[in-house]
Amino acid sequence: MTSYKHKKVITIGIVNELTGLSVRQIRYYEECGLIYPDRSKNGTRKYSFSDIETLMNIAEQREEGVQTREIKHNMLKKKNKQKVKEEMLRGQINAHFHQR
């Protein structure tokens, strides 16, 4: 079951209200590949609470002067580290159960 934080149900207007980011900024971060909203059948962007947290993090970094491409680089690095950790854990679990 998907956590409520990851369900894409929030419209861009509400994201704008919650984050203080302009619709233009939100769309720009999507174009840069920093967030990935879903689209409804009529093309409306739908965001999750997790997306909102990501946008707030992006906004904080931008205020500190971090460039968008650097933010993306750091996000990819973090995602890759997490993937490696998950693979290592999966390997440890498999090794543990196959030893028996």
From TrEMBL:
<dbReference type="InterPro" id="IPR047057">
    <property type="entry name" value="MerR_fam"/>
</dbReference>
<protein>
    <submittedName>
        <fullName>HTH-type transcriptional regulator TnrA</fullName>
    </submittedName>
</protein>
<dbReference type="InterPro" id="IPR000551">
    <property type="entry name" value="MerR-type_HTH_dom"/>
</dbReference>
<feature type="region of interest" description="Disordered">
    <location>
        <begin position="66"/>
        <end position="85"/>
    </location>
</feature>
<keyword id="KW-0678">Repressor</keyword>
<keyword id="KW-0804">Transcription</keyword>
<keyword id="KW-0805">Transcription regulation</keyword>
<dbReference type="Pfam" id="PF13411">
    <property type="entry name" value="MerR_1"/>
</dbReference>
<feature type="domain" description="HTH merR-type">
    <location>
        <begin position="9"/>
        <end position="77"/>
    </location>
</feature>
<keyword id="KW-0238">DNA-binding</keyword>
<dbReference type="InterPro" id="IPR009061">
    <property type="entry name" value="DNA-bd_dom_put_sf"/>
</dbReference>
